[in-house]
């Protein structure tokens, strides 16, 4: 055991308390920028644990920061607590059974994500207090990861400017150090304006905004053949202009998500999509207004931090599940497709084992599977401070992200075991950086080398603000 591993006792001492806290957050699912109840609960927990608190981080009402310790390096532990629409589900039930209400649910496990991160920060705080070691720990409560890019706005505002390293985690099917692969992503609205007219009596007087949207979609479909294979372009209709076919539609709006493996590649692809939109406007004699909604950068890796986290996982071993955990996981797997389960094994480079319901080991650092890449606003943090992320087993192998099955598993004993394990990994990695100045320096040097090659440019234009939502009336 390394000296840093004493931190695990501090995690265990409050594991049950924070498991209950995770369940409280599970029970109040709130989507991007509406997490007023969840952030209030995080504030109460920060106060109870003795942190000094900063609210409205980066002028976002549902972002919060708690700090403890004096002088020394600053270790940031990043948490999330936003839910998703349409994923309401009764806990502990292996069949689709939504709970009456707004339809939201923690179908990505963020109730555990924020709770385990705050547990890790609390453990480091308690260790600092008893050890007398110089250092500071911060818990950042980060809202709106799901499409809202809150961390990108926070990074742009300088919320992490004096942080030395940042640590996060995410619930998963397999336990491993996260491979720093994600897609830079911009969400952008294209609003076309034309001229209404009677579609039969005076069609020549109309200029169809709906035609412009359709032509843009066709043009982007042709563009897809001529982009890098790992780029992605998706769209959703926001406004088709109306429901009357005998009216030439004067307004129409479409939202695009444009992704590439690096920031420069995304910026280049973004300009090409804009040209398609402008071409559609020219063809239809309409006007197009282009508005950035949110954007995130791709993840930057950090070798020294990843090695430190891997060492911590290897010393801990896997998450200690029991037969009851495995039994419920098998029930969940019975609701999945064979391809769901195969996909999870492919992602980590392991031969599919249909008899394995939960992962109880640690994936070796150099083992790689098929890349299946999404986007995260953690990417922007990784450009401004050395960052590392863990993936920790909390649910049945094969469970799709953003599914009712994850919501169903979010309060189970297996989830609690996984989140406590994640807290140990994060706290252990943070304490190791505090104890070993050379490792910390190596992490910062690694980060500086990556930025020297490609300096950071925040993908969100300075004039774009977070799409904040009003505080519910019943909260005062």
Notes on the structure:
This protein is α/β, with parallel strands linked by helices. The protein is globular. The chain has helices at 7-13, 15-26, 36-49, 110-131, 150-156, 209-223, 263-284, 303-316, 323-333, 338-348, 378-384, 404-409, 413-435, 437-453; strands spanning 52-55, 64-70, 74-80, 135-142, 165-172, 176-177, 184-193, 232-239, 251-260, 287-296, 387-393. 39% of the residues lie in helices and 17% in strands. Helix 8 crosses helix 14. The longest helix is centred in the C-terminal third of the chain and has 23 residues, at 413-435. The protein is built from 14 helices and eleven strands. The strands form two sheets. A seven-stranded mixed sheet has the order 1-2-4-3-5-11-6, sandwiched between helices. It has a four-stranded antiparallel sheet with strand order 8-9-7-10.
């Amino acid at each position: 055991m390394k000296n840093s591993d004493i931190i695990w006792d501090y995690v265990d001492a409050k594991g049950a308390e924070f498991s209950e806290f995770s369940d409280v957050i599970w029970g109040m699912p709130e989507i991007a920028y509406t997490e007023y109840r969840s952030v209030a609960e995080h504030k109460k927990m920060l106060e109870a644990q003795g942190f000094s608190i900063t609210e409205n981080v980066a002028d976002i009402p549902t972002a919060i920061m708690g700090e403890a310790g004096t002088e020394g390096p600053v270790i940031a532990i990043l948490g999330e607590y936003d839910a998703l629409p349409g994923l309401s589900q009764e806990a502990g039930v292996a069949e689709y059974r939504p709970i009456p209400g707004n339809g939201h649910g923690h179908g990505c496990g963020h109730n555990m994500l924020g709770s385990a991160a705050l547990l890790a920060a609390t453990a480091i705080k308690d260790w600092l207090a008893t050890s007398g070691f110089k250092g500071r720990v911060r818990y950042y409560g980060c809202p709106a990861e799901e499409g809202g890019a809150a961390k990108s706005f926070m990074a742009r505002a300088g919320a992490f400017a004096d942080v030395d390293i940042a640590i996060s985690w995410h619930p998963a099917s397999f336990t491993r150090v996260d491979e720093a692969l994600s897609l830079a992503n911009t969400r952008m609205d294209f609003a076309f304006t034309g001229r209404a007219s009677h579609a039969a009596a005076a069609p020549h007087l109309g200029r169809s905004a709906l035609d412009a949207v359709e032509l843009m979609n066709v043009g982007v479909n042709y563009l897809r053949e001529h982009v890098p294979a790992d780029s992605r372009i998706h769209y959703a209709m926001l406004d088709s202009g109306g429901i009357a076919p005998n009216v030439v539609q004067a307004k129409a709006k479409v939202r695009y998500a444009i992704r590439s493996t690096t920031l420069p590649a995304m910026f280049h692809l973004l300009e090409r999509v804009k040209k398609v939109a402008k071409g559609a406007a020219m063809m239809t004699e309409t006007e197009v207004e282009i508005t950035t909604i949110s954007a995130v950068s791709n993840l930057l890796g950090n070798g020294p931090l990843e090695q430190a986290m891997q060492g911590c996982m290897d010393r801990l071993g896997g998450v200690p599940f029991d037969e009851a955990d495995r039994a419920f996981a098998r029930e969940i797997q019975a609701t999945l497709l064979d391809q769901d389960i195969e996909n999870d094994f492919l992602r980590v480079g392991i031969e599919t084992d249909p008899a394995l319901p939960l992962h109880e080991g640690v994936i070796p650092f150099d083992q790689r599977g098929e890349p299946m890449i999404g986007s995260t606003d953690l990417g922007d943090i990784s450009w401004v401070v050395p960052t590392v992320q863990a993936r920790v087993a909390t649910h049945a192998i094969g469970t799709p992200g953003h599914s009712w099955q994850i919501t169903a598993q979010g309060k189970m004993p297996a989830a609690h075991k996984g989140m406590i394990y994640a807290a140990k990994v994060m706290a252990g990695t943070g304490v190791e950086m505090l104890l070993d100045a050379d490792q910390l320096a190596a992490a910062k040097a690694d980060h500086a080398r990556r930025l020297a090659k490609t300096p950071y440019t925040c993908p969100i234009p300075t004039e774009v603000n977070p799409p904040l939502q009003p505080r519910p009336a019943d909260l005062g």
